[in-house]
Specification:
Mean pLDDT: 96
Helix content: under 10%
Radius of gyration: 13 Å
Structural class: mainly beta
Low-confidence stretches: none
Largest sheet: 7 strands, mixed
Number of strands: 11
Order of helices and strands: EEEEEEEEEEE
Distance between the termini: 40 Å
Shape: globular
Length: about 130
């Protein structure tokens, strides 16, 4: 089993920044691709960003491209999501997840992810 713990969420004004962290334990972290996903109230969960095992490949939803950056530190067993120029529509619970089957390239397909964290709330005020 792999345990994932998100942190770094909070309340921020529009235009501000937050950095989310996803700390992993229990498995060899570098064997997994990692993704960030979010779910706003009354909406379906959506993919935000994903990163391959090495960090060499990254993917972003069109809605966050140019504003969010995903990165990872395999020594610290942590994946980050730097969120800049935040908008009220970014308000959601953000989840990180780990995927073994697509470890080499990464994927934005949330159905591929085996392990999930509990989520961290991000609220952007206008």
């Amino acid at each position: 089993q792999m345990q994932l713990v998100e942190s770094g969420g909070g309340l921020v004004q529009a235009g501000g920044s937050l950095r989310l962290s996803c700390a992993a334990s229990g498995r060899t972290f570098s064997n997994y691709a990692v993704g960030w996903f979010r779910q706003a109230p009354g909406k379906e969960r959506e993919s935000v960003a994903a990163i391959s095992w090495s960090g060499g490949a990254t993917y972003y939803a069109d809605s966050v491209k140019g504003r969010f950056t995903i990165s990872r530190d395999n020594v610290e067993n942590t994946v980050y999501l730097q969120m800049n120029s935040l908008k009220p529509e970014d308000t959601a619970v953000y989840y990180c997840a780990a995927d073994f089957s697509n470890w080499y390239r990464g994927t934005m397909d949330m159905e591929e992810y085996e392990y999930w964290g509990q989520g961290t709330q991000v609220t952007v005020s206008s």
